[in-house]
């Protein structure tokens, strides 16, 4: 009985340390990418939710930068999610977003450009606090 337990443990150790086939490594990387992308989307949503909750004038750039920064730090999947997800979430294309911002919300192309700058800053690893307005509660 002890011999079989030793053989089973040896097989387990050898299998665990053996090099995995390329297809298995690819599947593992794909799974990590999807996990990172989902986490990045969650980071972006949390920043959006915080922005809506804070309702603080001039803080939108901070939340844009923070959401992108948090998502991009997760890895390639999170960086992909940060590039793909747009603000607001229901308007995925930048042309539609610009039209919405200039026509409905009263904000124009200059504000959109500043939002995109904050997004790029966060995605590139820049400190989101660059855009943090004075007086924003520390909770955020």
UniProtKB/TrEMBL annotation:
Please note every region of biased composition (Basic residues): 131-140
Q: Which family does it belong to?
A: Belongs to the SAA family.
Signal sequence annotation: 1-18
Coiled coil: which residue ranges?
none
Q: Gene encoding it?
A: Saa
Q: Sorted alphabetically, which keywords does the UniProt record give?
A: Acute phase, HDL, Signal
Reply yes or no: does the keyword Ubl conjugation apply: no
Question: Which organism is this entry from?
Answer: Rhabdornis inornatus
Lyase among the record's keywords? no
Q: Which InterPro entries match?
A: Serum_amyloid_A, Synovial_Prolif_Regulator
One GO BP annotation of this record: acute-phase response
Q: What is this protein called?
A: Serum amyloid A protein
Q: Where is this region: Disordered?
A: 100-140
- Pfam families recorded for this chain? SAA
